[in-house]
Design goal:
Glyco_hydro_5; glycosidase; 24 strands; globular; Trefoil (Acidic Fibroblast Growth Factor, subunit A); TIM Barrel; 542 residues; six-stranded antiparallel beta sheet; binds 2-acetamido-2-deoxy-beta-D-glucopyranose; eight-stranded parallel barrel; 2 domains
Length: 542
């Protein structure tokens, strides 16, 4: 009796401890949405936390206690999920190696001192056990974990010919890969922190082949689903996870009992600097179209073949020193908000224990600074806040999608109409209706409309009677579709603009657009101060 009683108490405590945070476990898919058992949408807003390099433990355990890292990810940075990367060999060859042995093997004595200081309990654990305690810690921190098979041989990823790129490459034996996937799926079966596994990162290289892709991806996916039917299974495309376009002609028919999700990456690597700088509007339009054609189409596809797409990597030098990357990032934010896709930013670490031969090496794509002490750039946290929220609920018809926020991706803020127009965080911003291009932008539940006064001045909210002149009619212009233009009383085109420093809203001459509001061929301004976008919204949480 009393033992039953204690079992009961234990069970209750276990539930309170473990489950109240997991409104999310288990997850399934419904069309393009990821949902929980009540049918509510669960949005993945993840940070990538690499654990697939030589030492085979999550980075940073030498810099900070894992509990504090987890606390920062959730409470300071605002993510609800971690994409934790791992290497196949960690499970198939080195699962009994201890953290201590692994550090010694690479002569990482200083790093080892750091681990001994910050996370001493992991030193004598095997690398697999160490991963497991980090996973549990993330769960206790109320976040979800996506386990991502990143490479086979533990090392920095991804090179064209690094032997980790495609089935049959030097280190990429398909059978061993499946064994590793099954081992992970089994270990975390029943662990509510782990909501998904992505089965291989950035397939690439000269061996890429669609036939092989279909064979092995379905084999790997089925093996995971069999070993752990609760978790989502995530398939990546070809060419470094940028191309799923082949699914248009040859769709995957087995959706693993509504557990199948696709993933995609979107970076600016290798893109022409001049196009980004001098043709920002048109180049943004081009890369956005490419993303939608090759991956995003799965969200909008005919209804049978719609799937969730997880934008599992994107990122930039967070110091803001690379202007091409800065423009790319703002371009990407506009689309991520508009389609309200699930996503994961690359990446958490401010430093790596050992990467490409360098010990304790800095990474400026990291949310953390080098010491894992503070966030590298708090502006980043502000800019991510809107896309970290659920913007849209499960809804496919979009029939009643009449409400918008007016979003400025450069600052990550939205417009609020009180007696003045102000920029504010998007959760507290005004909602608007805009029934057609060229029509009014009205604040919902009012009859007030947004109206241009003159160049260099703030627009105003007009009363209904004053909403019938061209100053109140707004068109989406430029090939980027990111500018909103109306006319002043003399018939000149003006665009909405937000001063990036003072956050004052004005209307001004449209940047980088000609008199017909088409993109000019070469422009020396940055038009992104004028990127204001109506983002459909039917849900903002938090
Ligand atoms: C699903 O998510 C909603 C919203 O977050 C939450 O209220 C609900 O309890 C969750 N349902 C389950 C079964 O976890
Ligand atoms: C790890 O140790 C266990 C128990 O001794 C053994 O069964 C297993 O084969 C070992 N795994 C590896 C990868 O060496
Ligand atoms: C570690 O140090 C030993 C002794 O100095 C050396 O023989 C070995 O090559 C080193 N290993 C690595 C991975 O650097
Ligand atoms: C892909 O692999 C299959 C089977 O190995 C082979 O028949 C086919 O020719 C390959 N296709 C390409 C485009 O390499
Ligand atoms: C955008 O794509 C079009 C069509 O492919 C091309 O003609 C144009 O040069 C591209 N623009 C830029 C800025 O790269
Ligand atoms: C943070 O990022 C912004 C935007 O890119 C940049 O202007 C700023 O200089 C960065 N600040 C730091 C401290 O790196
Ligand atoms: C749209 O709204 C109307 C009226 O509020 C409602 O009757 C209808 O069911 C809604 N349609 C959808 C698809 O939600």
């Amino acid at each position: 009796m009393s033992s039953q009683y204690f079992t009961f108490i234990f069970f209750i405590l276990f539930f309170l401890f473990h489950f109240h945070s997991f409104e999310s476990f288990p997850l399934t898919t419904s069309s393009r949405w990821i949902i929980n058992d009540s049918g509510d949408r669960v949005k993945l807003a993840c940070i990538n936390w690499p654990g697939h390099l030589h030492v085979m433990i999550p980075e940073g355990l030498n810099k900070k206690p894992m509990k504090d890292i987890v606390n920062d990810i959730y409470n300071v940075m605002g993510f609800n999920c971690v994409r934790l990367t791992w290497a196949t060999y960690m499970y198939t060859r080195y699962s009994n190696v201890t953290v201590s042995e692994s550090l010694d093997r690479w002569n990482l004595s200083v790093v080892k001192e750091g681990v001994a200081k910050n996370n001493p309990e992991v030193l004598e654990m095997s690398v697999v056990e160490a991963q497991n305690v980090v996973v549990d810690e993330i769960g206790k921190g109320k976040m979800m974990v996506v386990l991502d098979n990143h490479v086979s041989l533990p090392e920095w990823c991804c090179g064209e010919n690094d032997g980790n790129g495609f089935f049959g490459d030097e280190f990429f034996d398909p059978q061993e890969w499946v064994m590793g996937l099954v081992a992970v799926a089994r270990r975390y079966n029943g662990n509510p922190s782990v909501v998904a596994m992505s089965i291989r990162n950035e397939l690439r290289g000269p061996r890429q082949n669609m036939t092989t892709w279909y064979d092995y991806m379905q084999q790997g996916g089925a093996a995971i689903h069999h070993a752990n039917p609760n978790i989502l299974v995530i398939f990546s495309g070809l060419s470094y996870d940028t191309n799923l376009g082949f699914l248009k002609t040859q769709p995957i028919t087995n959706n693993l009992d509504n557990k199948l999700v696709f993933e995609s990456h979107w970076y600016s690597f290798g893109q022409p600097y001049d196009n980004w700088i001098h043709q920002t509007n048109e180049y943004c339009a081009n890369v956005t179209k490419l993303f939608m054609d090759q991956s995003g189409f799965l969200l909008l596809h005919d209804s049978e073949n719609r799937f969730p797409v997880f934008l599992s990597e994107f990122g930039l030098d967070q110091r803001g020193g690379n202007e091409m990357e800065n423009r790319y990032f703002v371009c990407l934010l506009a689309t991520v908000a508009e389609i309200d896709i699930d996503w994961g930013l690359w990446q958490l670490p401010g430093s790596y224990m050992l990467r490409e031969g360098r010990v304790d090496t800095e990474d400026v794509y990291g949310m953390y600074d080098f010491m894992w002490d503070k966030v590298r750039n708090s502006t980043m946290v502000d800019r991510l806040r809107f896309i970290q929220t659920k913007i849209q609920n499960v809804n496919d018809g979009q029939c009643n999608q009449t409400s918008y926020v007016l979003y400025h991706p450069l600052s990550g803020q939205c417009v609020e109409a009180s007696h003045l127009l102000l920029m504010t965080d998007c959760q507290h911003a005004s909602h608007w209706t805009h029934e057609r291009d060229g029509g009014l932008i009205q604040q919902t539940s009012t009859t007030h409309c947004l109206t241009t006064v003159k160049q260099g001045m703030a627009p105003v909210m007009s009363h209904q009677d004053d909403c019938s002149t061209p100053e109140s009619f707004w068109n989406v212009v430029s090939s980027s579709k990111h500018h909103l233009a109306s006319k002043d009383s003399e018939g000149n085109n003006l665009c909405l603009e937000v001063d990036p420093f003072t956050l004052e809203i004005v209307t001004n001459k449209c940047l980088c657009l000609d008199d017909d509001l088409r993109d000019v061929l070469k422009c020396d301004d940055n038009p992104q101060s004028q990127w204001l976008k109506l983002i459909p919204i039917n849900k903002i949480d938090q």
